[in-house]
Amino acid sequence: MADGEKRGHEGHRKRLRERFASGGLSGFQDYEVVELLLTLATPRKDCKAAAKEVMATFGSLRAVFEAEEAELVSLHGIGPVNVLGLRLIREVARRYLEERAGESDVIRDSQALREFLTMKIGSRRRECFVAIYLNAKNRVAHSEILFEGSLTSSVVYPREVVRVAIAHKAAAVVFAHNHPSGDPTPSVEDIRVTRRLVSALRVMNITVHEHLIVGSSGHYSFAENGYIEQFVRETDELAHL
């Protein structure tokens, strides 16, 4: 690399870092965000072309962070150390959002919950079903991905959900799953599974506050659309027959 070209790259990196230091990511294009991250692990190489190729391949920052390691390293200019940096950013963001959600009343601060769930499962390429167990103050006592794959009643076991809820002394539960298609509209099976879970937990005096479907085009709330209240009412009516 010629001295003039090297100085040009170093000056460009410096300007990127100064822009970030003074204003965060405001005004950055997505490829510039990737470029800035790549420079941290690539000390003496121009990263702009690699960053643009990454964005052209994956289309969005979220898709970049959710990409598999093999997909990333197949691109010119991306090595294992770069991938480590990208994965670290993703996991730090997830940890931050999880702790933020866990420290707040997730029912009152639904935005924190949705941001956490979007980061956790929003870009996954397979459906993931998450249970978030809450204590009496509606704060997160435990959360886990119960299964991956298409949502069906044959793979969601209410008995197992209840067992974990009792083990963590949960007073309430929030469910969520993603739609890789991007469309959060519930399917017939989504509704059927939600009814079974609400009913099983209601019998144990454990409240289901919500079931959210996360898609790239938005969220669908079973609670806001009246399903949770309906399923609770149906369960109570059956109990009094």
List the helices and strands and how they pair.
Blueprint: H1 3-23, H2 30-41, H3 48-58, H4 61-66, H5 69-73, H6 80-102, H7 110-121, E1 128-134, E2 140-148, H8 158-167, E3 172-178, H9 188-203, E4 207-215, E5 218-221, H10 227-239
Parallel strand pairs: 3-4
Antiparallel strand pairs: 1-2, 1-3, 4-5
Describe this structure in words.
This protein has helices spanning 3-23, 30-41, 48-58, 61-66, 69-73, 80-102, 110-121, 158-167, 188-203, 227-239; strands at residues 128-134, 140-148, 172-178, 207-215, 218-221. With 241 residues, it is of the alpha+beta class. It has two domains: 3-93; 124-239, Cytidine Deaminase, domain 2. The chain has a five-stranded mixed β-sheet, sandwiched between helices. A hairpin with a 2-residue loop joins strand 4 and strand 5 (218-221). The longest helix is centred in the middle third of the chain and has 23 residues, at 80-102. The radius of gyration is 22 Å and the shape is elongated.
Short key terms for the protein model shown above:
Cytidine Deaminase, domain 2; 5-stranded mixed sheet; elongated; 15% strand; 10 helices; alpha+beta; 241 residues
